[in-house]
Amino acid sequence: MTIDTRPPGGTGASAPTTIHLSGEINLFTSAALRRQLLNELDHSSSLLILDLSQVTFCDAGGLAVLIGIQRRARAQGITLALTAPRPYMSRLLRLTGLDRSLRVAA
Predict the structure, then answer these.
(1) pTM of the entire predicted model
(2) What is the residue extent of each domain of the chain?
(3) How far is it, in rounded angstroms, from Cα 67 to Cα 55?
(4) ∠8-13-14 over CA atoms, to 5°?
(5) 81 closest CA partner among 65, 69, 92
(6) CA atoms of 70 and 12, how far apart (whole Å)
(7) Which CATH architecture has domain 22-105?
(8) C-alpha dist (Å) from residue 56 to 11, 14, 47, 87
(9) pLDDT (tens place) for every residue of the chain, 106 residues total
(10) Is 72 exposed, middle or buried (0-12, 13-18, 19+ CB in 10 A)?
């Protein structure tokens, strides 16, 4: 799992923070991903975008990380949005019903 963060691009506090994820989100990478995303939440604007376009695999642990980060973000007044999921990831989100609780953009 690789994380590439793009800080808010604008000068206003409302500019989104974008995090580009790549590789696998699984049992071996979930804990580190959770720590990094929690750290990013502390420095995020009102919108945190997770770009999933390069995520090749995600297991139940990875989904749990996304749900936990969404809950923490919401508690901090931050909106979490997932963007550009590959067909595999879109299907996984749809089958688990998470596409209804997580904000997903194509």
Answers:
(1) 0.86
(2) 22-105
(3) 16
(4) 80
(5) 69
(6) 23
(7) 2-Layer Sandwich (3.30)
(8) 33, 30, 24, 10
(9) 667 766 555 555 567 899 999 999 999 999 999 999 999 999 888 999 999 999 999 999 999 999 999 999 999 999 999 999 999 999 999 999 999 999 998 6
(10) middle
